[in-house]
Design a protein that fits this description.
The structure holds two protein chains of two kinds. By secondary structure, chain A is mostly helical. Chain A folds into two domains: 40 residues; 134 residues, no CATH class. In chain A, 46% of the residues lie in helices and 8% in strands. Chain A has seven helices and five strands. Chain B is mainly alpha-helical. Chain B has a domain of 169 residues. In chain B, a hairpin with a 5-residue loop joins strand 1 and strand 2. In chain B, helix 10 packs antiparallel against helix 13. The longest helix of chain B has 35 residues. The chains are: A mainly alpha, B mainly alpha.
């Protein structure tokens, strides 16, 4: 019996070193060599400073920017969390009712059906994306605040829409931070900036 | 649901089925001690571990010795993990200073009851998490304590499955293999190589892997955002592959740093089913009748597909209460539709509901959406998946053990119907095996139902040391039947060694840390030990020839019998509890009834 316990202790020590230290160290080393940007969080720079991570949502409230989804975490990237409210929760229904009112008000009295992602809170509270339909509804507000044609903002949304993988897995989406940074580069307030146009791809929603 | 959704689910299942046999045959070779293509590269590591561990490769164990080794290993791992968690303030690679005097104000402590709960959780392959990773644990504790447990608990589960297979494959044998050798081989030849490759694929897609301090940035609009970092990819890979499910971050696989794209999501889905699907083929290969393995895989696939389609359809239909407020329910024109509360845009409805089904089928417990916010029917699927004993693919090793348990029951029931002694893959199924199968089933059902009943009725006072909010039911984040479902889900998940949660429940109090901890021990060991006992008794038996009276267990009739047994046993045991939770809530939701913990307005809501 003591011999078995000693085996257990020795094997536990061996596996702690092998799988708990050497394996993660090996992954860290190889990742550092092959994918240094991704390994450190896909950080994005603009205006001479790091403004965030391309993968982590951040709050936008000004009218000239596209807005992300409501967040249970308040886009605090040390507190990832969803709301965990159930479907028959009065708190949920009341929160969504207020979010809808705010969304309609902010977007020039938009009266159509609301895209589900625009008024619900994501699972992580850090969702970096919004749906293409949500972006298109916000486009007139963004264009007006910047004094640029709506068509150009819509064209940028279409170019920035990512399709599902193999057109099958996942949903079409627009990364809010990347879209807003592209807006600042291509369509700053008062008219388009000089610079090469972005490569054109066909707008595609991915739902069939 | 959308046509894309149908193809997505079937496409995923196709990938799993295609990989099952190659991996299964490879694993059979590994565990029978044959030379595989990985031996030239990794043989030295296997021999080194035997030398350091004082293990003799050819020493065979009886089932009692095998079971003792399993328990001894788990006990040592528990103590080691508890110590590492509690001492993390003294350990290196802890840039945020968790567990020290310099910890940031928002950090959460790793209290003794929480460390007890977490150590049991990871040593039992449950990975129930009553803590938030990015606010509680330094990198050394995450790696040395938790990543290690991800490997060892999975390897131990695979070892037990192989021992149970040997019970059927061997004839008149007193022994069923060697636990130390099986565990080492599972880790060295199966888990480590696959995890290494998967981790690098994840990093290439954006999963972080570093020991940096949390990154502080000024956002585009000028606010401050602190972004949690860490060695995530290395844990992410084994978390899915070993069906552990313990997230590096609080939001688990919904966090963009754990699961950034639909592609990584697909890889995670496949990893969760991979080993368990492969083990069915290993079973077929080792009992020298591949059809026996295919039959188990067919029953699993059938149950999986039904669950995935029901969950997806329910979530795509959405919440009629929100629909009446003006939310678009139908998918199309660049929007997901359906119930998007607690879901990520990149995964939408289908990838979220599919993930919820897979993670609960597989006893994994990783989540890429918040199950607590699912529609009642959509949330019923993961709950029922756990309660059926996680035999739909199931945890690595534990899943195969579970489906063999149901196979024993199925042939027993069939034997009763025709009045013959039941047989399964050439072995007579007698009193001992059926008793052991029933013991495993009853122990887990007892744990789920009794603990849930206790939590709904324990008369604790507000401010009590056991549970500060008062009665355990007061920890629920939702009122009405949904609050009850949170309790039922917690004990189902802990007992089923799943680890996913209806996460609104505040489970970090001494009451929940201790009760879910005990439930995890029951669910792990009162499930695996009876099966090892049955394996020991089966291995000692002679093989009997197939006659005209033998029920063929490699065909469609047996698959139907097996599926029926699983559903009927699950339904009979848990239907009363389920009808108090998700089933009644579905009816109430359709009527527009709302429940509130704080917004107490009697009657209906004027604006509905």
């Amino acid at each position: 019996m003591w011999r078995e316990l000693s085996r257990a202790a020795r094997l536990a020590a061996v596996f702690t070193v092998l799988t708990g230290l050497l394996y993660p160290a090996a992954v860290t080393g190889i990742a550092e060599a092959l994918f240094p940007v991704q390994a450190h969080g896909s950080l994005v720079r603009a205006g001479g400073r790091t403004v965030g991570s391309a993968l982590i949502g951040q709050a936008f409230t000004r009218p000239e920017y596209f807005h992300p989804r409501p967040s249970a975490a308040g886009y605090d990237a040390t507190a990832s969390s969803g709301s965990n409210l159930g479907p028959t929760s009065r708190e949920l229904a009341e929160r969504v009712r207020q979010a809808i009112a705010r969304y309609r008000r902010e977007n020039g009295g938009y009266a159509g059906p609301i895209p589900a992602d625009a008024v619900t809170e994501s699972a992580s509270g850090l969702d970096p994306d919004i749906s293409p339909a949500n972006a298109r509804i916000q486009a007139p507000r963004v264009a007006a605040a910047r004094g640029v044609p709506v068509a150009e903002v819509l064209a940028l949304v279409a170019r920035r829409t990512e399709r599902p993988w193999l057109d099958l897995f996942g949903d079409p989406r627009v990364n809010v931070l990347q879209l807003n940074l592209a807006l600042d580069r291509r369509l700053p307030a008062g008219g388009p900036a000089p610079g090469a146009p972005e490569p054109r791809t066909m707008p595609h929603d991915g739902y069939r | 649901m959308t046509t894309t959704g149908v193809f997505e689910i079937l496409g995923f299942l196709g990938i799993v089925l295609a990989l099952a046999r190659p991996l299964g045959v490879f694993m059979a070779g590994v565990f029978e001690g044959e030379r595989t293509f990985l031996h030239p590269a990794l043989g030295w590591l296997e021999r080194l571990i035997y030398r350091l561990g004082g293990i003799r490769e050819d020493a065979e164990q009886r089932w009692t010795e095998y079971a003792f080794a399993l328990l001894a290993f788990a006990a040592v791992e528990f103590v080691l993990t508890y110590a590492l968690l509690r001492l993390q303030g003294l350990l290196p690679l802890n840039p945020e200073g968790f567990g020290t005097a310099h910890a940031p104000g928002w950090a959460a402590p790793m209290t003794p009851d929480l460390a007890f709960n977490t150590a049991i959780s990871f040593a039992s392959n449950t990975n129930w998490q009553a803590y938030s990773g990015e606010r509680t644990l330094g990198y050394f504790a995450q790696m040395a304590a938790l990543t290690t447990q991800n490997f060892t608990s999975a390897a131990a589960g695979m070892a037990v499955a192989i021992a149970v297979i040997r019970g059927f494959a061997r004839r008149e044998s007193k022994t069923i293999g060697n636990f130390w050798v099986d565990t080492t081989r599972a880790a060295v030849y199966v888990l480590l190589p696959l995890a290494l490759v998967a981790a690098l694929v994840f990093v290439s897609q954006g999963v972080v892997q570093n020991w940096d301090a949390y990154t502080r940035v000024r956002t585009v609009e000028g606010a401050t955002q602190v972004i949690a970092q860490g060695p995530v990819a290395s844990q992410e890979a084994i978390k899915e592959l070993g069906t552990n499910g313990g997230g590096f971050f609080n939001a688990n696989s919904a966090h963009p740093f754990e699961n950034p794209t639909p592609f990584t999501n697909l890889v995670q889905l496949v990893l969760m089913f991979l080993v368990s699907a492969g083990l069915t083929a290993t079973f077929g290969h080792m009992v020298r009748d591949p059809r026996q393995g295919w039959a188990l895989l067919a029953a699993m696939s059938l149950l999986f597909a039904v669950g995935a389609f029901v969950a997806t359809a329910a979530e795509q239909r959405g919440n009629p209460i929100l629909e009446r407020l003006g939310v678009e329910a139908a998918a199309g024109a660049g929007q997901p539709g359906g119930n998007m509360e607690g879901k990520e845009v990149r995964f939408g409805i289908v990838d979220s509901a599919l993930f919820a089904t897979v993670t609960t089928d597989a006893s994994c417990g990783a989540v890429n959406s918040m199950h607590d916010s699912y529609t009642p029917l959509g949330g019923l699927v993961p709950l029922f998946d756990i309660q059926t004993g996680e035999v739909i693919f199931g945890g690595v090793g534990a899943g195969l053990c579970g489906i063999l348990l149901f196979a024993i029951l199925a042939v027993f029931i069939a034997g009763l119907m025709v009045g013959r002694t039941p047989e399964y893959v050439g072995k007579r199924i007698e009193q001992k095996e059926v008793k052991m199968a029933m013991l495993a089933l009853i122990a887990t059902a007892f744990s789920i139902l009794v603990f849930t009943a206790l939590a709904t009725s324990a008369p604790l006072a507000k401010g009590s040391a056991w549970n500060a909010p008062g009665p355990p039911a007061a920890n629920a984040a939702n009122a009405g039947p949904h609050g009850f479902t949170e309790l039922l889900y917690a004990y189902s998940s802990a007992t089923g060694n799943n680890g996913s949660a209806f996460a609104g429940l505040d489970a970090d109090t001494p009451w929940y840390d201790v009760t879910t901890g005990v439930a995890m021990i029951i669910g792990r060991f009162l499930f695996l030990l009876p099966l090892l006992a049955a394996a020991g008794s089966l291995a000692a038996k002679k093989s009997i020839p197939v006659t005209a009276g033998t029920l063929p267990t490699g065909g469609g009739l047996f698959v139907a019998l097996l599926v029926g047994t699983i559903i009927i046993v699950g339904a009979l045991t848990f239907f009363p509890a389920l009808s108090l939770g998700p089933i009644v809530e579905q009816f109430l939701m359709n009527q527009g009834r709302l429940f509130s913990l704080v917004l107490a307005v009697p009657g209906g809501v004027p604006w509905l």
